[in-house]
Amino acid sequence: MRQPASSSSQEAYELARDFHEQSFEYSRRPDLTSQYPRVSLEDLQKTQLLGSGAFATVVAVRVTSEASLEQTQQKRSRQVSNISSCSTQIIDCSADDELFGEEDQEQQQQDRYALKQLKSSLDQEDLHRAVADLVTEARLLAEINHPHIVRLRAISSGPKFDKGFFIVIDRFRATLVKRIEEWKMEEKHISGLKGRMHDWNGHRRTALFQERLRAARDLGSALQYLHENRIVFRDLKEENVAFDKDGQIQLFDFGLAKELPKLRHKDDLYNMTPHTGTLKYMAPEVALGQPYNESCDVYSFAILLWEMLSLKRAFSAHTNKEIEESVVRPPFKRPTRNQSWPQELSFMMHKAWSPRICDRPSSKEMELMLMDLCLEDNLQNKRHSIVVHKSLSIRKSKLHLFHHKRSGHSDHHQHPHQDTDDCCSSSNQDHENEDPLLSVSVH
Ligand SMILES: Nc1ncnc2c1ncn2[C@@H]1O[C@H](COP(=O)(O)OP(=O)(O)O)[C@@H](O)[C@H]1O
Ligand SMILES: [Mg+2]
Question: Where are the stretches annotated Disordered (predicted)?
């Protein structure tokens, strides 16, 4: 393998490798990246800038060489095909929040991959961290196989711990940020006078809510899969979730993810890098530099779930300093939950964003509840309210059990429907957004 030439880049290479190895310090799994096609930039034609994060830019590409990005993992079901050869060329480099924007179907089909590479503007200090994160992302994606997690297609044929390293993944249609904007527009449309007349029975509004619930369920299944495989994601947020060409929700950006030991420690908490991720989604224990585990993703998922259901941004009026002072620390402010949401969903959210790890449900429990709600939401309105009414009491008692089981060593027992740590919400419920059907189901 070619090594970076100069001594400073050699240093950056070693630092990057050290950082990368930290993410796999507990790992016993082999590195599967060697099973993926290796491509060079000459094999790819860049067509459009799709977005950028702190360290990386992502560009739509089509494969121009005879080399195909054929699937390498046996279990993977979807296929990719070969495209003919020409050299790397930027056709359109305008930053585009629309992602697919006005492109026609054919072009979308051709440019269905995305190239993630490091920004050229990174200073030396950020470089080793960024390289390490991208190599970590490649290694984790190489072993992941889930319908709601982005698929790795190829990796750079150059050296791994180098600023030129890149990965090729499937391209998305729109990020969750954009999708939430679209949902908001649709909600606004049907809430107007004309909209209400067309949607007099509230079916459209209910269907929109259910669509969001199903997307949350699928995202929850991706999270549960990661946790089952002892991977903590650590950066769950709207910006790292998208929808693919088939409208399926996808989790991506695994730069901060880390493998946990296969066998759980007695308390199952680990000293990992503090302050990892984005503050408003960050579990208090991570922000405070305390030991943590995959439950930090459950916290982030609760905030994200609230955003998907309320169509608002959490803590939008708070500065980072205010979040540090009153969200991470007492009084542990949390977003206002809508009274019309199913009670068990609201309760689960409340437990999931608890500052205490032991109060939180597991991602499996969250996924199961969302699956359950999505099954119920297929029922007809009238039947729905009756069935939900009945099953609620059963499930509430189950949740009570789970609450007591998990908070066994907590000195703070709270009634499930009290919102004492929810100081943004309890006095300020948002009735405007009440869903007519769902409000029936939560008596
Ligand atoms: N596969 C993709 N298809 C379309 N857009 C993407 C894709 N991957 C990333 N993006 C866009 O690029 C942005 C940055 O990508 P991301 O992987 O999150 O980089 P970073 O690690 O720097 O945060 C995303 O928020 C999204 O807008
Ligand atoms: Mg990102």
Answer: 405-443
